[in-house]
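Go through the following before class.
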Amino acid sequence: MNSRIPVVLLACGSFNPITNMHLRLFEVARDHLHQTGKYQVIEGIVSPVNDNYKKKDLAAARHRVAMARLALQTSDWIRVDPWESEQTQWMETVKVLRHHHSELLRSLALMEGPGHKPRCPASAALPELKLLCGADVLKTFQTPDLWQDAHIQEIVEKFGLVCVSRAGHDHKRYISESPILQRYQHNIHLAREPVQNEISATYIRRALGQGQSVKYLLPDAVIAYIKDHKLYTKGSSP
């Protein structure tokens, strides 16, 4: 493993609320990268979007961060980072990637400074930061005025993508229809989820609003938090 390239996976999104599907993305992506024989995933980061994203029914960031922390209590390699949610305004994904890349550089410099042992035996290797997403995100790259071409290029050229398959989405076609994605497809890793998992946060919110059970779709600690704070119910405040 020491000869492999270390990788940090970053997932950006609403996490409104975080679901078991969100957690599975990380596990599937890690397995896929390890099976290439080239990479060693050392960390996963969940980055909930800022409140100023203004998405309908978006719970306050403090709740979404708290729920993510509860969901990740059982993980020994994935953590939630509130930085994006704490900014004064909504930020494009590429800017979040830049921030975490800078943090990786800074932490490596600290770890390899005077009086510190190297971070790992292959300490010369700076961890690669890759954006983790569902294959549906590839489709959104085609949506007019949603993404800037320069941002898409920076994401796939400088960082790279790990996309997990989703039912009803043809990721290979999305790549072939985009000149930018085609050019950098060597930096796009397509991971197959053998157990199709179509849990959506939209469905979760609807079910909660109708008083239906969401047990086994979310971690129990998240369900308890939602109940305690009366989230996603009719008349509830963000």
Q: What stands out?
A: The chain is about 40% helix and 15% strand. The chain has a mean pLDDT of 90. The first helix runs from residue 20 to 35. The first strand starts at residue 5 and ends at 13.
